[in-house]
Amino acid sequence: MPPRRKRQQARTLPGMTRDVLLTCPLDCPDACRLKVTLGPDEQGHEKMLKVTGDPHHPVTRGFACVKTVHYPARANHPDRPLYPLRRVGAKTDAKAQFERVSWDEALNDIAARLKTLLDTRGPQSILRYHYAGTMGLREGSHVHALFRALGTPELDETICAAAGTAAWTLGYGARYAVLPHDVQHARLIVLWGINSLSTNSHLTPHLTAARKNGAKIVCVDPYRNRTAAFADEHLKIRPGTDAALALGIMHELFAHGWTDEQYIAQATLGVDELRVEAQEWNPERTAEVTGLSAGQVREFARSVGTARPTYFRVGYGMTRHESGGTNLRAVTLLPALTGDWRYQGGGCTMSTSGVFDLNRTQLGGAHLIQPGTPHINMNQLASALEPAKGLGALIVYNTNPAVVAPDSGRVRAGMQRPDLLMVVLEQAMTETAQLADYVLPATTFAEHADVYTSYGHHYLGYNPAVLEAPGECRPNSWVMMELARRLGVTEPGVYWSMDELLEHLLDTGSPHLRGITPERLKAEGSVPLNLPEVFLPYADGAPTPSGKVQLTPAPRYAPARAELNAQYPVRLLTPPAHHFLNSTYGMLEQLTRPEGQEPQLLVHPDDARRYRLSEGAYAHIESEVGRATRQVRVTEAAQPGAAVVEGTWWGLNAPDGSSINVLTAETLTDLGGGSTFHNTRVRLTPAL
User: Fold this and answer.
1) In angstroms, rounded to a whole number, what is the distance separating the alpha carbons of residues 527 and 516?
2) pLDDT above 70 (res 1)
3) Fewest beta carbons less than 10 Å away: which of 327, 348, 530, 633?
């Protein structure tokens, strides 16, 4: 790779710094308002120097998470691509080699090759692949408009939230939730399938306030993470048995009269069917399936049944199983039985995204999707890349699928096909970028304008571009417009400016957006939606077809089809690490060092003895689709029969150079077609 030229951007006066307020673009419910300090580098070019939280923002409260305080190191990383790069040599070469080219060279060649595919093989031969590298509605969502104008396949964005969204929608309709500032009023808090101290850290002050007010905090999770240690009680449930525990609680609620019969009669539909299903789940049966004791089941159910209000914060962890949608749906129906939706601080939070009633009719060219357009589930990228499927081009942005997609060994093999044009828009030389034919340098959230919602609070955010992009980095939207021009696309929405998109998004009669204009949003930067002071979204029913919370069809527990057996006797869980955010920060030693410099396999002492594994030694982990090697950490944080590898590490940090997703399969959830990362069964052997 040729040496980089100096950045072509304005110089600042020596020693001069300035602070700007921006919304964090990353995939996290907190959507923090950040105070970003900008100042000169050694050559006097302005860059990002420091990131903290906006002290005046009611959600962020002056602190940023342990991950994002290191964003300047990512933005200023010496390996950040600053110019368009074209591959030199085969994709199978062990060391990726690129040469710098001009934007015109890159875009002209890419457009010509896409046009040939469109003319000879049709739009179905081109796939866009993306996810939540930015949550910005312009650079993350509206950029899809180019592909919809071309008629290419729809990518089903299912890797994270799809199972939960489908489950919630079935029961409650719109994704409303308890807002963070109301949590302090709860008297029982249940953190179920979420390591909130690591993945929703700005909820913690509200948990602490509730505890000071007398609340008890219970964590339901298969292993002892930071949140489990923080809680007053940890229920170490067997992986994938969440629906069984929820049904066991329902059994006790019905048996002891701890249900709110008035709320059930007025606001729900289908209680009789649910009552029949729960009747079979006495504490003894529930304990046998979940791994808890019958006493734990009884006491937990008593707490849920008698503490008003009870607040459930559910995470997507419980959805990463074959029955993941049912798991989450069963848990989220509990506050409908107890009537907790009537109380301030009572109810459940999965996502607050439903309160952002933006006009999305043309966002990302949604109106251009034609009936009969083929769909590809993003969890099945490995299969989509098989030569027989006919894909000739893969355009990747805002994600790192070579690391994060299931069955990543096959994903990488598909990306290495010599006949596949792969273009990656990136801010970092990820493992996906290293397999590209073209790497197109992308801007960071400080270098382009965008608008942001949240799935953890109710503030709408706007970021202006406050930094000149280094080198020749360009926003995703600019790249898509340039390709569209070369391909002869005439659809006006593809070329919308930020102002035009903002006008469209806010053109709605929703009372939640009353008084929020583009001018106000741009002037204030972060604006609360117009919600009632006490927000009780399901106090009288739900925006479902029946107008009520739908308890039917009753959720039913089903054991995993991929049952543990003699060949694969251990369930592997791959939850987030405290210092990572998916694979966004995978190149930063500042964040890999606190996690132990390399990924570790957490195993219970019983399993360590059973499989002859030693602390600090290495183990092979083998599944039905692949094999990885990891360093062993023996700990009672895990449970017998369930091993844990925290964090989506880049393969470059692993002893075998592989992502943990070489082990995970394309199996989909029961609802929503979501991922099943925690469904993986494996065997463990010493690496001799």
Assistant:
1) 8
2) no
3) 530
Whether 494 and 145 have beta carbons less than 8 Å apart is answered as yes
**What is the helix (H) or strand (E) element at residue 219, kind and residue range?**
strand 216-220
- Please choose, from the candidates 433, 576, 585, the residue with its C-alpha nearest in 3D space to the C-alpha of residue 73: 585
**103-120 and 476-487 helices, crossing angle to 10°:** 50
Q: What is the DSSP annotation of 1-52? A: -PPPPPP-S-B--TT--EEEEEE--SSSTT--EEEEEEEE-TTSBEEEEEEE
Instruction: Give 48's strand partners.
Output: 38
Radius of gyration (C-alpha) of the chain in whole angstroms: 25
Cα 282–chain centre separation: 35
Are 335 and 341 in contact by the 8 Å Cβ rule? The answer is: yes
Confidence of residue 13 (pLDDT cuts 50, 70, 90): low
* Total Cβ atoms within 10 A of residue 161: 22
Strands 268-269 and 233-235: unpaired
Q: Give me 38's structure tokens.
A: 């900008």
What does the pLDDT read at residue 96?
82
* Cα 420–chain centre separation: 28
Q: Helices 324-332 and 242-256 meet at what angle, rounded to 10?
A: 30
Q: Report the phi/psi class of residue 285: left, alpha or beta, with left for phi > 0 and alpha for psi in -120 to 50.
A: alpha
The pair of structure tokens assigned to 578 is 């405290």
Phi-psi label, residue 10: left if phi above 0, alpha if psi -120 to 50, beta otherwise: beta
pLDDT tens digits for 419-432?
Answer: 999 999 999 999 99
pLDDT at 15: 66
pLDDT in tens, 150-174: 999 999 999 999 999 999 999 999 9
CA distance 518 to 506: 7
Q: What is the pLDDT of residue 6?
A: 38
pLDDT at 94: 74
Residue type, 191: L
* Token representation of residue 683: 């065997």
Measured in residues, the chain has a length of 688
Q: What are phi and psi of 469, to 5 degrees?
A: -65, 140
In whole angstroms, what is the distance from residue 222 CA to residue 602 CA?
12
60 and 202 Cβ atoms separated by less than 8 Å: yes
Other Cβ atoms closer than 10 A to 108? 15
Half-sphere exposure (Cβ direction) of 452: Cα atoms closer than 13 Å? 32
Nearest CA-CA partner of 599 in 663, 638, 641, 644: 644
Q: Report the run of H or E that residue 283 belongs to, with start and end.
A: helix 283-290
- State the pTM of this model: 0.96
- Structure-token match 């382009």, residue found: 448
Nearest to 541 by CA among 532, 550, 533: 550
CA-based nearest residue to 677, from 360, 405, 403: 405
Average pLDDT, integer, range 310-315 = 98
Residue identified by tokens 């739009």 is 123
Cα-based distances in Å from 627 to 410, 572, 644: 12, 12, 15
Token pair listed for 305: 């049944």
Distance CA 273, CA 131 (A): 38
Q: How far apart are CA 399 and CA 80, in angstroms?
A: 15
Q: 399 and 426 in contact (C-beta within 8 Å)? A: no
Q: Is the pLDDT confidence value at 203 over 60?
A: yes
